[in-house]
Amino acid sequence: MAKELLKGNVAIAEAAVRAGLQAYFGYPITPQTELLEHMSARMPELGRTFLQAESEVAAINMVYGAASTGVRVMTSSSGPGISLMQEGLSYIAGSEVPAVIVDIMRGGPGLGNIQPAQSDYNQITKSAGHGDFRPIVLAPGTVQEAIDHTVLAFDLADKYRTLVFVAGDGMIGQIMEPAELPPMRQPAQTRPAWALTGADNRPKNVVSSLYLGAEKLEALNKRLQAKLQQIKENEVRFEAINTADADIVIVAFGTAGRIAKTAVTEARRQGLRVGLFRPVTLFPFPSSQLEKLAARTKAMLVVEMNAGQMVDDVKLAVNGKTPVQFYGRTGGAVALPDEILDQIILLDKRYPAKKATPNGQGVVISVA
Amino acid sequence: MAKGRIKVDEAMCKGCELCIMVCPYGLIEMADHFNAKGYKPAVLIDPDQRCTGCTLCAMMCPDAVITVYRETKIKPSPAYA
Amino acid sequence: MVDVMMEKAPEKVMWAEKMVYERPAALSDIPTHYCPGCTHGLIHKLIGEVIDELGIRQRTISVSPVGCAVFMYDYFDVDGAEAAHGRAPAMATGIKRVQPDNIVFTYQGDGDMASIGMAEIIWAATRGENITVFFVNNAIYGMTGGQMAPTSLPGQVTGSSPNGRDVEMTGMPIRMAELLAGLPGASYVVRRSVHNIQTIKQAKKAIRTAFQVQMAGAGFALVELLSSCPTNWKMTAADSLTWIKENMVPYYPLGDYKVADVVKTLNNRGK
Predict the structure, then answer these.
(1) Which of A121, A215, A223, C117 has the fewest beta carbons closer than 10 A?
(2) Is the CB of residue A79 less than 8 Å from the CB of residue A103?
(3) pLDDT in tens, A126-167
(4) pLDDT value at position A211?
(5) Rounded to a whole number, what is the distance in Å from the CA of A13 to chain C's nearest CA?
(6) Which class for B73: exposed (0-12), middle (13-18), buried (19 or more C-beta within 10 A)?
(7) Residue A367: its pLDDT value, please?
């Protein structure tokens, strides 16, 4: 497949179609609506299911229904819509039905605006609905990553029978840049054993998140937690640039991470030993990798497009091994590289003492 | 008139008495013993064999615990002739 | 199962005892948790009978509501899903659109469908989703212990209308069959009751037609069924059926509110 100039939303939609998506249910909300529009044309073309629901509440419950028949199903929205979907997301998690949710975040809270933002980090990584569950959350920084993460999301959802978010923002959804789409993969012909397909000479299947009695629900929760543990052990992804000999490491994801790269390059040019650690999976969070890195840095700067949310997870991971500074822009404002550079310089002055790197050479941490 | 009878699944009966209400000949009463759930199940009291197997009780039963039998004439097949 | 009971006397006529009614096979053998005399169970039985008679058990998928009938998936021997409160029509839409050969039905109470789930049912009907909906109207929230429902009658005393439903404050009870019948997408919308043998027979026919509409791909079918709640109405089972007849039927007249032409042409309708 050759590179094409693709708009983020459209690229994500087409990637999902090529990953064997069988049904899409959504609702218009800026800045992701082009994704829905692409589906409205493409899915019927392939004889697959597309429906614009009456609300995000209805959409997520249509997703729940379709996904409970064992096919690949997806919806997409932005913060306000995800808020409406949270009850449905909890039901989906509680019944271990796989589903992919694309969240193209925008300025919040409230109606907010349609600028790119990351202020729903906590919503999707920590409280995507009531009860103890956490979806896998992938955070693309480019249109190419958005494509790759969409395909990966379906594989992870099926592998773990869980919810997977592809969390972009208005920028990633709206920009156009060259990217390569995956080859077309036909939807799976067979259905998993638990799927609702009609009890045709087999015992009936039930898809439900209702477990009356504490023992049964505790057993379900234990199963979910065991799964999350497995996910933490196997599915962490991140990108590390120039962190081997870095004194200061910037921690930033998605668009903020992409902008921080430019600041890192400029800082290096000015002789500052700065690196970038970009979490690609927001859950499972790359805690152990950050903790190891913290031991060798004199300070970390967390840069986000919100008032400080991932910074808490960074602090938890770093566990005091190095000072963690935060710089954020809210309301859909996006930090420019120079602003980040200024913060780096301030940080460098504030923590002059350079930590010796134990063995001199750096360990290049590549994307897993 | 054809003769009939009913069988009540005593364990599942909740003693709601709705079957009593619809039996055209008032042949159903609540037993005087309790089932495991503490309900007095319905019981057919039909000494004079008046039950015709009309199935009204079964139609009314909210828990589908009544099975209805009815005697029907059968033409003697050669085997019995 | 035929018990052959031979008459000893060499009479010409032989009698054999035949079973003429038994618990529908579509019902599982799990006893329901419904209160004694609650007609939820009766409606389940009618649905089970019709599923058996139409021979669709292997391809039927039920969608349970949140409410007293939340365990419906336990009570039918068919694949079942349990939907969020009010969202069964949306969940059913998702299932049916991906698997049109399945027979998908939702079973919802008045709180589930006419209150929190109003948008979903209006839109499932508007889109003419090819699903079957059984709307059980017992004018109260049963599962949560008897609060006022959208269909509670004026002046009806409930847990959350202790002085009787004040329509000035809460508005009038809502008539769902009439409301949905007005939507072009709806093909079959009727209201029935189960408060006596005659209405039970009519209800079963409507349930059957509603499934046949779906089997024929003829669009959205809904049967509103007036039902009882002895516990929260604080009546005996028998009195609650009388209460339906004397209080609910006048406000919720039984009848056919929408029978689209495509349904009229169904030759086996109701048989």
Answers:
(1) A215
(2) yes
(3) 999 999 999 999 999 999 999 999 999 999 999 999 999 999
(4) 95
(5) 19
(6) exposed
(7) 40
Q: Please answer yes or no on whether B69 and C24 come within 8 Å at the CB atom.
A: no
Confidence of residue B81 (pLDDT cuts 50, 70, 90): very low
C41–B62 CB contact, under 8 Å: yes
Phi and psi angles of residue C248, each rounded to the nearest 5 degrees, phi first: -80, -45
Residue ranges of C 17-56 with Cβ closer than 8 A to chain B: 17-24, 27, 31-32, 34-42, 44-45, 48
Residues A188-220 as b/e (b if ≥16 CB within 10 A, e otherwise) read eeeeeeebbbbbeeeebbbbbbbeeeeeeeeeb
Residues on chain C touching A23 (C-beta within 8 angstroms): 94, 97-98
Record: contact C19-B72, CB cut-off 8 A: no
Cis ω for the linkage preceding A109 (within 30 of 0): yes
Whether the predicted pLDDT of B76 surpasses 90: no
- Answer whether A316 touches C (CB < 8 Å): no
Please report the pLDDT score of residue C75 as a whole number. Answer: 98
Q: Which fold has domain A238-365?
A: Rossmann fold (3.40.50)
Per-residue pLDDT reduced to its tens digit, C166-195 = 999 999 999 999 999 999 999 999 999 999
Q: Which CATH superfamily is domain C2-269 in?
A: Thiamin diphosphate (ThDP)-binding fold, Pyr/PP domains (3.40.50.970)
**pLDDT at residue C6 in the model:** 53
**Contact between C94 and A199 using a beta-carbon 8 Å cutoff:** no
CA distance C248 to C252: 6
Distance CA C205, CA A319 (A): 69
| Cβ neighbour number for residue A119 with a 10 Å cutoff | 24
Domains with residue ranges and CATH for chain B: 3-71 (3.30.70.20)
Q: Round to whole Å and give the CA distance between A321 and A308.
A: 19
The DSSP code for C57 is: G
Distance CA(C136)–CA(C149), nearest Å, equals 12
pLDDT confidence tier of residue B79, bands split at 50, 70 and 90:
low
Give me the residues of chain C with pLDDT under 50, please.
1
- Res B1: pLDDT: 66
Tell me how far apart the alpha carbons of residues B19 and B11 are, in angstroms, rounded to a whole number: 16
Subunit contact C93:A65, Cβ cutoff 8 A:
yes
Please identify, in words, the CATH class of the domain defined by A4-234: alpha beta
Reported as a pLDDT band with limits 50, 70 and 90, residue B78 is low
Residues of chain A with C-beta less than 8 angstroms from the C-beta of C95: 65-66, 68-69, 196
A 10 A CB-CB count for A288 gives 11
C119 touches chain A (CB under 8 A): yes
DSSP, collapsed to helix, strand or coil, labels residue C50 as helix
Tell me how far CA of residue A229 lies from CA of A123, A187, A219, C142, in angstroms. Answer: 20, 29, 15, 40
Which residues from A are below 8 Å from C71, CB to CB?
210
Counted residue by residue, chain B has a size of 81
User: Hey, are the CB atoms on B15 and C36 less than 8 Å from each other?
Assistant: yes
Distance CA C127, CA A353 (A): 68
Average pLDDT over residues B10-24: 97
Structure confidence at residue A353 as a pLDDT band (50, 70, 90): confident
Q: In angstroms, rounded to a whole number, what is the distance separating the alpha carbons of residues C214 and C262? A: 11
Residue with tokens 């933490």: A232
Query: How large a percentage of chain A has pLDDT more than 90?
Result: 94
Asked if A172 and A116 touch (Cβ cutoff 8 Å), the reply is yes
The predicted complex's ipTM stands at 0.93
Given this model, what pLDDT does residue A362 score? 39
Do residues C135 and C110 make contact, with C-beta atoms less than 8 angstroms apart? yes
SS3 label, residue A221: helix
φ, ψ for residue C63, nearest 5 deg: -125, 110
How big is chain A, counted in residues?
A: 368
Distance, CA of B11 to chain centre: 15
